[in-house]
């Protein structure tokens, strides 16, 4: 699966993943009003608004970015109707040729991790037929439970040609509380990074592994070290923009050939219509603003502006 | 919320939580056949079988145990239909007076953790009305992202009188890979335990805190130390039975008054009808076998056998 992502990145020339993390406050009234009218002022109505909003964004960006990353928490907040929108979003993005990274941060003991892996990346046989729960292309995984919490995901990746990104160093301010603590002279996140590289060798797909890593844009120096510790891991970089990560810092996450990392931008793209840099779209042109924001991001990332 | 759990433990005299972790292989043919006939040999059919199976168990044990712990991964494996069964199970257990611990092991950066917390423990305002996603009483939380990943859960707990159990030392064989690594002379799990105690002081409810801890039964010596480090945390103890934790080891997790811990048993109760110790129920009397297994467990735990 990672080779498919790399191909898409090369084709689009954009190492960007768009975080499809809807919030009601990002959605223009015209979409909300219609959704509430059709489905009620309810969880169902809110979930319908998420879906229509996502659809406008997807329709406007699917040809210029390689991938999207829906954050399942935003959908789970709305209970079952929200998760139905999550599933519809995953399906629609795949129809449009986008690669879908389910930002689910799951992780449990072995047999339980297997259930998560099957539900999100794999398939289950019932009777004579095979069914798929959510069927993302990639999922993010929490490593706190160690190898037997991660390996069931890798087994499913190998069986189904899917991939994972393991949390190594997250982008939030208190990520250091445990992740930066020194063990045998090196921070915990480096130890986790070493394991990611080791796990990844069990699932190579071209020059990179189906086992990637999450390393926050907010910590570029750590990204530099981790880039070296995990030569086969693609790095998913959240925290760019809204969380404080800056463009020039991103260079550390990439290899010399411009590959090796994919940067997530969520609010900066999906809520661009609310940003004063895109005043021409302030009437709620969600999709046009998102497309403009992607182009702007690309230019900035190339150092053209 | 923790005081409600303590009251229920005292009333039932049973510091046991029943893990509602269904698998198709645990379910008798009579339930599966009927479910598949009604809903098809499909995810919907399997989810219906989970529901009917859960219902038989709940109806047989609701008066003798204080709490249940559905493991959401088992439901998520079946996609949306599975999660609908999860939600129905949560609701039904609460109607029966059981306290529900959603074993969801969520955890993310601050704003995202807040969405999980709202979806599982809290409420969301849409228009003028308030809605609830899954509405468990407690949820399990992964601490890898540090305080700002955990505190949004605590805010929701304080607002809604709910609780969490934070993963400190998990029951699986490779839990030591990161959790046992030595930092400033002490294993990581002790540092996490210290934080749990600190976080917990922000959410006291009687003698204990709404912020509890998960500590695996498979590591009794560590349980002993953690019991001391976290005097206000209730300890949720998984891994008893199937994963190798033994009855005599459980004593370390409890305080002298018999409180302070609640032990999870899943397969040993919900699949008791398949166990050779309960041959009289081998025709698929799921509920009767589960009830017998709870009584047997209680006797063993009291040291009566």
TrEMBL record, chains A, B:
Residues 15-281 form the Orotidine 5'-phosphate decarboxylase domain. The active site is at 105 (proton donor). SMART domains: OMPdecase. InterPro entries: Aldolase_TIM (IPR013785), OMPdecase_type-2 (IPR011995), OMPdeCOase_dom (IPR001754), RibuloseP-bd_barrel (IPR011060). Pfam families: OMPdecase. Pathway: Pyrimidine metabolism; UMP biosynthesis via de novo pathway; UMP from orotate: step 2/2. One of its GO terms (molecular function) is orotidine-5'-phosphate decarboxylase activity. Its EC number is 4.1.1.23. Keywords: Decarboxylase, Lyase, Pyrimidine biosynthesis. The keyword Hydrolase does not apply. It comes from the Bacteria. GO terms for biological process: 'de novo' pyrimidine nucleobase biosynthetic process; 'de novo' UMP biosynthetic process. It catalyses: orotidine 5'-phosphate + H(+) = UMP + CO2. Belongs to the OMP decarboxylase family. Type 2 subfamily. This is Orotidine 5'-phosphate decarboxylase. It comes from Butyrivibrio proteoclasticus (strain ATCC 51982 / DSM 14932 / B316) (Clostridium proteoclasticum). The gene is pyrF.
